[in-house]
C-alpha cells in the first residue's frame, strides 16, 4: 500500500522516534515459519534485534518456543515473556557468570543455556554451579569462519576431555555464528554457509559419539538463514527478520520480509536552496556504517551528507519542498543497534499511534 508508513496523528510523536507496525511484524514471523515448513523446533530467533516483551510474546503466540540473546537483560526479558528455552549466545565471564546462574535459579519455568568455548570458562562455570547445587546447560561455541569467538575444531578432543570431567555442566549441543557471511550473491552465501556448517557437523559427529543423549545444533544469522533453513537437523537464529532493514533488503533480496520499523524525523533547519537539516543524529540511528545510514520513504531526492550527535544534513533538489517541520520517514541501514538507541517505540495501527512499547532489554540490567 502506498505510504503505508504515514501516521495521521503524528503530532503526538516527538521526533526522532522509532515506529513499529505490528501487522507487518506478524507477517514477518509467519513468513519465517513458512521458510522452515512451519516446524518451529527449527527456529531459535535472536532477541537482540527487538529487545521487547511484546514482540517476544508475538513470536511465542505463533508457536516459537526457543530463543537466542546476547545479554543477561535480554535473557531475563525473554523469561519475563514466558519463553520456554533461552540460549545466552555469549560466553559469561566475571560477575556475569553469577548473574547467569541467578537467572537459572530465579526463573525455573525457563530453560537456560549459555555458550562456552574454552577450558577455563568450562571449569569456572562448573565450580560456580557446584557451589549452588545446580546442573547447568551449555552449548560449545565453534569458530565457523568469523574469527571472533568460538573454539577451533582442532581443539575438540581436549575440550571434550574437559567437558566429560565436569559434574555440574550438561553439554546440550554445539553453536556456530557465521556473521562473516554477507555477500549479495546468494550462491556465494550458500557456499560459505555450507563451509561453516561442515565444521559444525564434524564437531557434532565427534561429540555425538561420546554422548549418550541427542545433541543439538544452533547455527547462523540472517544472511545464512536461507541456506540453513534447508537443513532439517539444525535450529536457525535470524533476528533482523522481525523488523527488517534497508541493509538486508539489499543484501538478501530472496528473503521477502516487510520493513516493520521506521524512523520518524523532522526538518529543523533550512540551510540553503539545496540543503536542509533534520533531527536524526548519531543518537537516533545506528552510525557504525558510512553515510547514507537511512533510506527515506517519502523523499527520494534526499541524500545525507553530514551527521553529528543530534543532526543530519541532507542535500535535496529544492529546499522549498522541505519547510520547517516537514516529516520524513526513513528505514535504517541497520535496525538492531538502532533499536537499542530508544527507550520506547511508538506502535502504529491503521495509520495511527495507539500506544508505546518499552525497549526493556536495552538496559544493561533488569532485576538480575
UniProtKB/TrEMBL annotation:
GO molecular function term, any single one: D-threonine aldolase activity
The enzyme's E.C. designation: 4.1.2.42
Gene3D superfamilies in the cross-refs: Alanine racemase (3.20.20.10), D-serine dehydratase-like domain (2.40.37.20)
Alphabetized CDD domains for the sequence: PLPDE_III_D-TA
Keyword Lyase: yes
GO biological process, one term: D-serine catabolic process
Keyword Repeat appears in the UniProt entry: no
Keywords (A to Z) from UniProt: Lyase
Coiled-coil regions listed in the entry: none
D-serine dehydratase-like domain location: 260-349
Family the UniProt entry places it in: Belongs to the DSD1 family.
Protein name: D-threonine aldolase
